[in-house]
Amino acid sequence: MKKGRAGNHFEDFRCGMKIQHATPRTLTEGDRSLYIGLTGSRAVLGTAETNAQQLGFERRPLEDLLVFNTAFGKTVPDISLNAVANLGYADVRFLADVYPGDTLVVESEIIGLKENSNRKSGVVYVRSTAANQHGLEVLSWIRWVMVHKRDHGAASAEPVVPAMNAVVSPGRLPRRKYAMDVREIVTMTGTADLWDDYAIGERIDHPGAMTINDSDHSIATRLYQNTARAHFDGFAMAAAGGQRLVFGGHIISLCKALSYDGLENGLSIVAINGGTHVNPTFTGDTIACATMVLDKIILGVSNVGALRLRMIGIKDSSASSIVFPHPGQARQDYPSNVVLDLDYTIVIPKKS
Amino acid sequence: MKKGRAGNHFEDFRCGMKIQHATPRTLTEGDRSLYIGLTGSRAVLGTAETNAQQLGFERRPLEDLLVFNTAFGKTVPDISLNAVANLGYADVRFLADVYPGDTLVVESEIIGLKENSNRKSGVVYVRSTAANQHGLEVLSWIRWVMVHKRDHGAASAEPVVPAMNAVVSPGRLPRRKYAMDVREIVTMTGTADLWDDYAIGERIDHPGAMTINDSDHSIATRLYQNTARAHFDGFAMAAAGGQRLVFGGHIISLCKALSYDGLENGLSIVAINGGTHVNPTFTGDTIACATMVLDKIILGVSNVGALRLRMIGIKDSSASSIVFPHPGQARQDYPSNVVLDLDYTIVIPKKS
Amino acid sequence: MKKGRAGNHFEDFRCGMKIQHATPRTLTEGDRSLYIGLTGSRAVLGTAETNAQQLGFERRPLEDLLVFNTAFGKTVPDISLNAVANLGYADVRFLADVYPGDTLVVESEIIGLKENSNRKSGVVYVRSTAANQHGLEVLSWIRWVMVHKRDHGAASAEPVVPAMNAVVSPGRLPRRKYAMDVREIVTMTGTADLWDDYAIGERIDHPGAMTINDSDHSIATRLYQNTARAHFDGFAMAAAGGQRLVFGGHIISLCKALSYDGLENGLSIVAINGGTHVNPTFTGDTIACATMVLDKIILGVSNVGALRLRMIGIKDSSASSIVFPHPGQARQDYPSNVVLDLDYTIVIPKKS
């Protein structure tokens, strides 16, 4: 058998197919440092051991999106090595914290397939889950991705498009315990705004902006052991008249880090309800973002609440110039400088 | 209240104002690795656990300038997010070692304010201190920085310019204990030159040179969680006719790493007496440096002494081409390729 | 004596000269993370703690080439700071695993010297060894390197060219113990090919390709504390009509990482039989590679065998375009896009 397998194409997938992804990955303090260096994250739980302990944790959990991007990377060799584009996310749930030393094991199930009308490619819908070394599920997500066909003439089964909820319902959000005095977070962040201080419909223009260098996204994407060709093979991309694409997960991480200014007291991401990489990002682009509060959710605990947020990432424009697109807007109707439309839910301390 | 605060402007500061900076930061072995990868540091104490133990330490302390740059970064969102330029340092004292796992907490006091005659900006003088998780002060420094006014018409108080000493006097240098046989350092570095072998007025042209890539300084600056816009927002900088500036702390770190060749047996920085980033540095610049021995200081211990050094950093020229500027020379009289003029004090083993 | 020594030139070396290299280096989990971020390595032993334990290790050893490049870097200030080019490797043996927290101490002996006919430079042959903090030898290698003369008129001794074996004989390969059920590796990598599934003469075109960014190789080379000027001083390289060269060790690491697809179940490198950096590599080059199986070696244990492999690295061309050069082909006869010709031996599980 030929070695050096080059990933699956659209016609290699079947609905119900289950895939155990190679090779498990242990995350460490080294990965955390690199994550901070690559994104500039200042998330309060991940920045200091003392913060984490005061907030009720034994030690600092790893940043949610470091976990997400690493788990995602594990799926690439089987799912999206030959991807045209990563189209969207749904029902992403952060179920348990991941700590330095933990090992992620990732598996997937194909839950939908739909060939494109040009018969050159098709959309693959995948449910993936990451567990830690104790078998505890820490992350679960659906994504759909457009994948090339190897043979344009290959036959396809009937299209199956899975039903997906537009939002992770409150009852399915993880419940974690925080220290009783979790609102002392304001002494750590120097910012007083808690759950109570955000209003539905409120808009936050995050003041920072970040220009992406080639090594920034390349190192990040390799750290996640994501091998998708489009991010790394500049020679092949140039031969096809293009250039290397920035990994979408890096854009989410950058926007999340920029959104610290305005959401300082957010503790954790608990869900990504949906998200789309609307346009591609390239080396040299400068990313800015703005957030809108979509909903305020009361959880079954007294000291924290959840905020459902919509974050729009844009390139080479100011955050204030962002026009929040109509929800459910077709991909092709977004302005060409919008790169991310992400609907996600965070936990944040409440006033008494 | 509007969220996503965009930092203080000149008129927001008052003399005597105290600021507790967000959010404390834990440093780890991951940060050390990244520091070595970004600067090429070969400092003997930080490079090997075995070195540190032979020199009388329980374990490897973190590099002095990793601590300095991280602590500095904590002050940026409150002090210098809207800085025009970081003008100078004085009375920087490294009071205790920082180890992997330690958490830095940083606070500042405004000690001087002086509006510029154009009334568009002003100089802010700040005394900052970093303590570890046990409340032990590890670093104390003064810097002054030119900050934009938000409203050019805003009134300003009488100017206050704090008195600052030109040098940290020997009595104020930290006293640390080293192993009795600290001069065995020469078996680690392969270099015999100890305190006794340096002469006042001696000049050392460090042989290396380092070209700065965009991700080098961007990753370093993000690692320090320094959010100053001028380092990151290439779009805004280009719109204003400029480009992203390299963080001055990265230049100090690079020059310090280059100066290893010629100062191999230096153990620790104990003070920065003064320093100026004379001209800006950009991606693609190649940095070289030379050192002059300004003074030799006898400490109250028998096995180590201190050297007061002046290090000049230059871009796109050889170290041998450096002309040491007249002390106290006005900023505008420096040659345009000089980027750093730093007066600092190190501890180095003495012969018996 | 003048400080800031600028490395040895050809006439400074003598056969039999022994050099203890400065300064020992402790490797950590931080270095591992950075190595993954810089190379994209997915090596099964280094990626997850759980993998290592199932394969019979107490914990994850560090990647072989992180150890090799770090140990190599230690020799640069004494051996190759003034190198024209690193010409080749022989008899490289990986004798014991290195773990986070281990400290490498490196020493060398000059075993050959041969002046070039132009009398401007000469070839220096060096045997180097790295030991850990317990004095256990972990790595031993020969390399030869062309070094500038300081004084073209300096006299040279008679040429000495050491005898070198073309291959590390099976009896000199290290013996390590693996868990009895080491072939369960296929559940970790998802790939069934073990020692038995490779045939002598079989060729593997590895499907990936990697474009090298300037910070990628600069950070890697600094992480190894390799100070060779040619990698860092862009100003001097441009003044001489050239540009910075990518460190050859980074190319070996990249090719090794790309070769994961097709050699997924390789456990460790045990030897580099020989190798040459045939042509230089620069920022922006895209690297691809192919492997040919040269030999299958039966070791004195039942559950693993060794494969002797030849890996050719190429720039800006596809792996499938590689023509394996005639063994022993003269350097100048290689196509200009071939950058690496490496003959090395790995251990891989056997079927019962």
Describe this structure in words.
The structure is a homotrimer of 352-residue chains. With 352 residues, chain A is α+β, with helices and mostly antiparallel strands. Chain A has a single domain (10-150, 179-349), classed as Hotdog Thioesterase (Thiol Ester Dehydrase, Chain A, Roll). In chain A, 20% of the residues lie in helices and 30% in strands. Chain A has helices spanning 29-39, 44-47, 49-54, 64-79, 185-189, 214-223, 234-239, 248-258, and strands spanning 18-20, 25-26, 83-94, 103-115, 121-131, 137-148, 203-205, 210-211, 268-276, 286-298, 304-315, 338-349. In chain A, strands 1, 2, 3, 4, 5, 6, 7, 8, 9, 10, 11 and 12 form a twelve-stranded antiparallel sheet that branches. In chain A, helix 1 (29-39) runs antiparallel to helix 6 (214-223) and helix 4 (64-79) runs antiparallel to helix 8 (248-258). The longest helix of chain A has 16 residues, at 64-79. Chain A starts with 17 loop residues before the first strand and ends with a strand. Chains in contact: A-B, A-C, B-C. Chains B and C meet through helix 1, helix 3, helix 5, strand 8 and helix 6 of B and strand 2, helix 1, helix 6 and helix 8 of C.
